[in-house]
Each structure stands twice: as structure tokens, then as C-alpha cells.
Amino acid sequence: MKLTFLGTGTSQGVPVVACQCPVCLSESPKDKRLRASVMIETESLCLVVDAGPDFRQQMLMHKVRHLNGILLTHEHTDHIFGLDDIRAFNWVQKQPTDIYAEERVQVAIRRVFDYVFAHYQYPGIPQMHLHLLENKSFMIGDLEVQPIRGFHYKLPVFGFRFGKLAYVTDVNRLDHEEIDKLRGLDVLVLNALRKDEHISHYNLQQALEVIAEVKPGKAYLTHLSHQMGFHNEVQEELPENVYLAYDGLQLMVD
Ligand SMILES: [Zn+2]
Ligand SMILES: [Zn+2]
Ligand SMILES: [Zn+2]
């Protein structure tokens, strides 16, 4: 299984428009972060988790020609606003794109992309095939997907486990039974917004506490704000086997 970080930034990305802070002015490619998303590839599947406003650019950069589905963590703008661009895959693959989302997220998609579900189908609009996500394992082709329930302040969101890999973002609370689903991982990807506390995201310290509890082989932090600091400086401060993810990073996971 190959994991590709398509984006590792928080909702505004890094650099932030009009921000003059040193991180936003950094010339290091590792300080440039598109909106958070990952791609999971197996021999037979190519899946993406979330499709934010940078989805088009991410698909072009990684030359993605075939998508087997998009898993949605939740309905915030930075996770769904790229969905209109599935049109290209509809055209090439001659079929609707499979989108996996829980009920509340589907309601939001039907509202935001109301033209997709309108009675009159304007020619060329995106075609979505919505699948209901619940907090139980399911299969996409030959890949088992285990949803992980987390909380983003009060909003329930889903992370996903695929074998020895799990991707959990936009949470600041995981209950015990969900934490237990994260044991025995080779790779855990977890959100860490910045060093200061935040109402709806783990900060660095809180993310490190979860990592220390579940003890993955390696952990990668994502959904990073410009307020986290320079990639290279923050990386130096992290415990062994914990890394800041960066855009374009690829990992092989069994
Ligand atoms: Zn987000
Ligand atoms: Zn900034
Ligand atoms: Zn969010």
C-alpha cells in the first residue's frame, strides 16, 4: 500500500493569503501546505481521503488518472470543496465517482452541490454515487476500511484505518474504544494544528499524547497551521519516530 500526502495544511493552507509571518514567507517547499488530503494506492485501488479546494491541483501534480473513490472525514469546506472537479474522472472513467460519507455529511453535500442532485441535470455536472459510512468496517474492492470515530469539538468526524495504516484528522477527542482501533499500526497519521491549544483540533502536545498511548511504528502529523512553525525546526523537537508530514511525502505500508 502506498500513502501519498496530497496536502498537509490546515483550512487556509500555508502560506496563508496576505500573511507576512516568517513561516508563510519561507522558501522551503516543506513550509508550503495544500489543504489536507491523502491518497491510498494498492495494486487494484486508488482512493483519496477528502477533496478540499486544492483537489484539482493535487490530482494534476500526482498525475492521477483513475480514482476508485473518495472517503470524506467531515463536511468542512477544506475537506469537500474540490468535489466539483470529479467531473474529469466521470468523463475519463465513464461512471459516477464513489463517495463515502456519513448521513450528516451527505446532507451537506446535497446542499452545497445541490445542482448535482437537481431534477434537471445540466449537461456536464459532476456525477456522485454516495455510499453511507457508519462506524463499522466495510470493503472497497479487496481493501477493508475501518472507520474511527473522533470528535472535532462537538462535530463527529471519521478517520480511517486500512490494515496497518490509519489516517485521523480534524479531531481533538478520541474515546477509548476508538483509541483501541489504533493499536498495532505501522503508520498513524494524526492532526496537530499548532503548539497552542485550539477548540477543535489537537495541538502538538495532545497529538503526541495519543501517539504515546497507541505506539504506532511511526507517526506523521498533518493539518498543520503556519502557527506550528518552520517544518525543519519543529521536526528537530519531535520524539523518535514522530514526523511532520509534508506535501508530496510518500510512504510504503504493508
Ligand atoms: Zn480541516
Ligand atoms: Zn503566516
Ligand atoms: Zn474541520
Overview of the molecule:
It is a single chain. The longest helix is centred in the C-terminal third of the chain and has 11 residues, at 204-214. The chain contains eight helices and 14 strands. A seven-stranded mixed beta sheet has the order 6-5-4-3-2-1-14. It has a seven-stranded mixed beta sheet with strand order 7-8-9-10-11-12-13. With 254 residues, the protein is an alpha/beta fold. The structure holds zinc ion (3 copies). Residues 15-16, 19, 21, 23-24, 226 line the site of one zinc ion.
- Secondary structure: number of strands: 14
Which percent bin holds the helix content?
Answer: 10-25%
Largest sheet: 7 strands, mixed
Strand order of the biggest β-sheet: 6-5-4-3-2-1-14
Q: What structural class results from the helix and strand content?
A: alpha/beta
Shape: globular
Strand content: 25-35%
Low-confidence stretches: none
Report how far the terminal alpha carbons are from each other. 6 Å
Order of helices and strands: EHEEHEHHEHEEEEEHEHEHEE
Q: Specify the number of helices.
A: 8
Unique ligands: zinc ion
Q: Determine the oligomeric state from the structure.
A: single chain
Mean pLDDT: 98
**Rg, Cα atoms, Å:** 17 Å
Topology:
Elements: E1 2-7, H1 22-25, E2 37-41, E3 46-49, H2 55-61, E4 69-71, H3 77-80, H4 87-93, E5 97-101, H5 103-112, E6 128-132, E7 138-140, E8 143-152, E9 155-162, E10 165-168, H6 176-180, E11 187-191, H7 204-214, E12 218-222, H8 231-237, E13 242-244, E14 250-252
Parallel strand pairs: 3-4, 4-5, 5-6, 10-11, 11-12, 12-13
Antiparallel strand pairs: 1-2, 1-14, 2-3, 7-8, 8-9, 9-10
Bound molecules: zinc ion (3 copies).
